[in-house]
Design goal:
By secondary structure, the protein is an all-alpha fold. The protein has one domain. It is 63% helix and 2% strand. The protein has a two-stranded parallel sheet with strand order 1-2. Helix 2 runs antiparallel to helix 3, helix 6 crosses helix 13 and helix 7 packs across helix 8. InterPro entries: FA_desaturase_dom (IPR005804), Fatty_acid_desaturase (IPR012171). It is an enzyme of class 1 (oxidoreductase).
Length: 327
């Protein structure tokens, strides 16, 4: 984890330092450096902050706290992510409205219980473009939208406490944007709009990688989308719910798993979120055997390509059918 942390931070920061020196005159090199930084940003998101905010990076909570701030460094916010991901997604996985990960804009449909529009018929084609733009939306507007919604839900206290938290979010974003976009616009010999396009290309790489990896775990034909009963309660126990709504992929590729922070073992992560991802591969054999013993599903796509194909198929089904298996 230490080696990965140092490497991913260097991959993210080093290209930006080079850009900020103002020595990059080639447009092609400018884009190459920003895109390289995008790979580092994705690595920070999947391999550092994700474990840290789950308190699974280290037994030392201060280490987890400070490494969780790497998310703030790349323009998002650890406090908001903790609510959206740790609390809502992990507690209410694939439950419409409760799981924030399956509550996208109207032009995307991630659950059979969401109202279908005509445009959804083509979402298996255009979704990938919006996946690429997802982190641009995240670092600019989405955090503020979520913060306002989470305040109404009671996660943030009102008055001075909320205003102080809001100022922290704005301050971190100002720091990130200054280093990643404003200084390059000032220092680079390139036109401002070229730097902006390069910045967007960095985020496109990051967004496409991160969003695709997370989607392959939950939006596939084998996973289910449970609904609460009339009393607002989802039947079944929490652990079984995670097995019904989550899928693994590409379990045999150690290098791939290392690069994406073990997120190909999503079942293990959902069942044991407080365990560092470096242990998921060995744990997976125990989890799979236990699921088999109790007659519970253990969804798994054997490689990344097949998982992408299954997600593509699910997007197409959701875009064309009003009623799918609700689980």
């Amino acid at each position: 984890m230490i080696i990965k942390t140092v490497l991913m931070l260097l991959v993210f920061i080093t290209p930006l330092v080079i850009i900020n020196t103002g020595i990059v005159e080639s447009t092609l090199l400018l884009f190459a450096l920003y895109i390289t930084s995008g790979f580092g940003m994705a690595g920070i998101g999947m391999g550092i902050m994700h474990d840290a905010i789950h308190n699974s990076y280290s037994k030392n909570q201060k280490v987890n706290q400070y490494l969780g701030y790497t998310l703030n460094l790349i323009g998002a916010n650890a406090s908001i992510w903790r609510i959206q991901h740790n609390v809502l997604h992990h507690t209410f996985t694939n439950i419409e409205e409760a799981d924030d990960d399956i509550n996208p804009p109207f032009f995307l449909r991630f659950t059979p219980h969401t109202k279908r529009h005509g445009i959804h018929k083509f979402q298996h084609i255009y979704s990938w473009f919006f996946y690429g733009l997802s982190t641009v939306s995240w670092v600019t507007a989405k955090d503020f939208v979520r913060m306002a919604r989470f305040k109404k839900m009671g996660f943030f206290k009102g008055g001075k406490t909320f205003n102080m938290e809001l100022m922290k979010v704005i301050g971190w974003k100002a720091l990130s944007f200054t280093f990643v976009l404003i200084l390059p616009m000032i220092m680079s010999p390139q036109a401002w709009w070229v730097v902006l396009l390069a910045f967007i290309s960095m985020h496109f790489v990051t967004g496409l990688m991160i969003t695709t990896v997370f989607q392959l775990a939950h939006i596939v034909p084998t996973t289910e989308y449970p609904l609460p009963n009339e009393e607002g309660v989802v039947e079944g126990d929490w652990a079984s719910h995670q097995l019904f709504t989550t899928s693994n992929f590409s379990p045999k590729s150690r290098l791939f798993s290392w690069c994406i922070g073990g997120l190909n073992y999503q079942i293990e992560h959902h069942l044991l979120p407080n365990i560092c991802h470096v242990h998921y591969r060995k744990i997976s054999h125990i989890v799979a055997q236990t699921a088999k013993e109790y007659g519970l599903p253990y969804h798994n796509n054997h490689n990344f390509v097949s998982a992408v194909g299954e997600h593509f198929k699910m997007l197409r089904q959701l875009g064309r059918m009003d009623n799918l298996r609700a689980g």
